[in-house]
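Message: Just now I want nothing more than another pair of eyes on a protein record. I am handing you a single protein, as its sequence and its fold in token form. As I understand it, each token names a local backbone shape. Take your time, and here it is.
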Amino acid sequence: MCSVDISVVIVNHNTRQLLQECLRSVREDARQSGLAVEVIVVDNASTDGSPEMVAQHFPEVVLLRSEENLGYSAGNNLGIWRSRGRHILLLNSDTVVRPGALREMCAKLDARPDLGAVAPKLLNPDGSLQQSCWRFPLKALLIHALGLGRLGLVDDYRRWDHRTDREVEWVSSAAMMVPRRAFERVGLLDPDFFYGADTDWCFRAARAGLRFLSLSRAEVVHHGRGSRQGAPDPRFAGGPEAQERYVRKHHGRWGVMAFRLLLMLAAFPRAVLWELAHRLRPGPRIRERRNLYRRLLTFAVRKEGILA
């Protein structure tokens, strides 16, 4: 029987200040929770003094230093291998855990053996809600392309206020607590995914019969632009390449063709509208959206890779 309740695994790459704030919040919540919590930091070859800061100010933390940047998935896998907890919280270094979050997530997993993971409510630094759960990619893209979510015909979670717990299709690994038994059943993160590893893992877990719960009373602040610059639309984080890699793995060649078609249907009218908006009223946000849909459209119509 595990003597540690929760292992918190944090992969870090050059986010020293954010990591320090994150570790302070975890330390405080762990202290108040009454649970046995271990924290593991996997440092991916940082050059900003991150590992030295951890060693000096957080001696209780297990620090695993890598001489090369292993990437997100391999870094988390290393931490999971080293962990001893019955539950494992994958946590981004650019987060702040609010009081009570660890206990709430742990309690939900203890109460429901059918769960593959739970996720807290993610908040932006200003306290506003940050979306942390989605439909799986092909379904999400279909809903987006046809505007079904905006019309209220299909629930894509974007209008959900997170005031109650809810089962969802997949959750963000910015803060995702997984019971050890789920990793033993499904396997670890796929290191071929730099982006989209959480989507891939949740799909594999769902296929194994596990479910996912997004929580209303556990809260984590997520800065969202720590060691990388986030996409202007989180559904396309990592670019369409990451989405297509997932689709190819799980849905094959026909899935890739459907993905390209849906991407074209979604991107073309929006690229036109954002281009017009940019010409009439240029600004950084409009330019960012225009560039996103330009890139998605360019990717959708390229010929190479579809039959690979």
Summary: DSSP finds nine helices and twelve strands in the chain.
